[in-house]
């Protein structure tokens, strides 16, 4: 049929014209910030970027299991995936303007004339309409939606990285609290042993009631440290359950000691490489691309729009003759609409420009923040390791002093005041050692987070939703 052939040709031509502009690419703007050539306290010649499963470098199977479950069941990650689905749907919605809208109609009617004669009528039509995207407004709105879809994927990666980091930090805090609880209970036993020794000296007249009361105070003080530590353990367990999307009662954590963990090997490379690894920087870049496309669309809205419509079908008084060539009908129309007075257009353009400017500064800040986070993580890892080494030496010395003092106490060769001071020094040193060790492992978590977590060889985020092909290129 001629009308159907003409309609198909017009649809194909319009579609080809609309989709031919999809190759438009956004040019990344100059950040206009000084990118450091290296790090203040770190060499960059032998970089060791984080692996995709960077948490496994701590050598804890339980931690790896918890992370895998958090990636699967965490509510914030699930919500971020929902936002990806919304963004993808918006891409399809915006892209629909680049292809024709086709509808079909079918009508039947029966009329009775004044003479009593009944006349039946049958009609079927195929309708097509298309806006010729001559100025690129529809293509720009599609590019904006595509950039927002990319942004949603990086946003999901930001959320996932934060969740995994929180799981590691809370798990390490739980290990530290369990270790501190074991130390506190040992300290109660040790201080009780000293109390028994002083009580024995009181019985033979080499000590007095004040000595016993002072040591009893230390025993009670050590016992008083246990409830808040137990509370801390429970709080960490409930926090971990929340991250895993579980009710607290359903979580069982074996735990262990911080000293059993491995020290990760990680070393950042060039600062310029960092920008491509940080999902928050990539998200800010995608947001900027989206608003750039919005500016293009807002400018194009000032220009005339061209609409093509076509209709073809058949109309007959009988079903048998409905689809014959004599009953065919068609129409082709073209219309042009030029905005003359629309006060919203300048406002929309200014709004789009303001959003672009806002996202440009957010992009720059994200880049600078990535450098700051990495510098802070480097020095924190280094100094926390140094502090742990010094605190370990102090704890070892306090332990030796305590062993010597306890032996002298049994022999009656030391005064009670010295023994009390030695005990307090050891107990404080042990607790401080656990805290400094916790700080070191959490510093490594901050390092991994500052470096953007893991990044696969394909350029895809580790564990996040896959990026559209256009986003990778």
From TrEMBL:
Record-linked InterPro entries: MdtP/NodT-like, OMP_efflux
Subcellular localization, as worded in the UniProt entry: Cell membrane
Membrane topology according to the record: Lipid-anchor
Principal location: membrane
A GO CC term attached to the entry: plasma membrane
Pfam families on file: OEP (PF02321)
GO MF terms, alphabetically ordered: efflux transmembrane transporter activity
SUPFAM superfamilies referenced in this protein's UniProt entry, alphabetically: Outer membrane efflux proteins (OEP) (SSF56954)
Transmembrane among keywords: yes
Highest taxon listed in the record's lineage: Bacteria
PROSITE patterns: PROKAR_LIPOPROTEIN
Keyword annotations from UniProtKB, A to Z: Lipoprotein, Membrane, Palmitate, Transmembrane, Transmembrane beta strand
Family from the record: Belongs to the outer membrane factor (OMF) (TC 1.B.17) family.
Name used for this protein in its record: Efflux transporter outer membrane subunit
